[in-house]
Design brief:
about 350 residues, alpha/beta, D-Maltodextrin-Binding Protein, domain 2, six-stranded mixed β-sheet, three-stranded antiparallel β-sheet, about 15% strand
Amino acid sequence: MIDRANRGPGTTGDRIGRRQVLAGAAAAAGTIALPLRPVLAQGSYLAGETLELLSSYSEGAAGNLIMQEWVRAVGKLLPDTAVVHRNSAGGSSALGIAMVAESVPDGLTVGEVSTDTLLRKYTSGEQYDISDFAIIAGLSRALDVLYATTRSGITSVSDLVDRDSPAVLPVRATVSGSYFQGLFTNAMFGTRIMPVTGYNSGARELAFLSGEAQLIIRGPETGGPYIENGDAVAILRYSDVPVPDYFGDPPSLSQLAVNQDFRWIVEFYNAISVTYIVCTRKDVPADRLEILRDVFMRAADDPDFRTTVTAVTNVEPVRGNILQNSLKAIVSEFGDLGANIQRALACGTQIAETGEACAA
């Protein structure tokens, strides 16, 4: 598992202090935590209303469990509000996101948005992207790692640059995060990675371990056994989140010489290394949005919530305005995000197919 003791600069102020969870421990021997108290005044816009939380994950998925637990924790904080869970899985979360985007902008509908949704509009023609939403909170920090099989002879990003033929990266579809990561890596470094679609999670692993594919992208928790068993080497981290010592020291995007035309990708992946994001419509009144952010951040510190959810993910909540401002800063510095994404995808595809560098 990842050593989460040191997450680097800039994280302490982005999440809730744990003193709330441990409140009263020093004052009363044997007391580990006190229940969270309701946080909203009787006159809040939520009093007497129904707050609907839409899950975009299928039944049994970790994301669906997390949303159910968030419903319980939020309900403790809002005793005068009916907090309900509604599963709206479909189209790889597209259905749930559409329902949030098309809801009434009254702050009573909240849904999950995956980081894939930040990008898929540019390959699938879907109607919505992150600019259509106001982010309430992200639940955990995450890290994607690019692994190469030991049998491939690939031990570094430089080896991928020098290849005469593309290295196969199995991915689910053109709307999956790994598809974008593979092509973006090509654009940044001139690597020859060929994302090949049609692989579900189990099929990706089988292709990787059998030698059908040379590369795979996983988190440290799921990819760690590859390293421990000698099946793979970690060659790249897509953010600056650290990996366990036994991984060696794979470089992050920010540690390599990046094509300056695509330097925004480095900042982008550091900004979106957040999983299980909850959002609402972007035109919800600002005061209501801040109430929602307060509630969801405090709910994520509920001891019962943490006990259940830490079984499936680390709990390191990030307030929505932190993530939203990071994305706005990228647009401010580098220009239109959509245009940059499309240009990077085109460049990455060209390099994968022909080996030729993109024109400046």
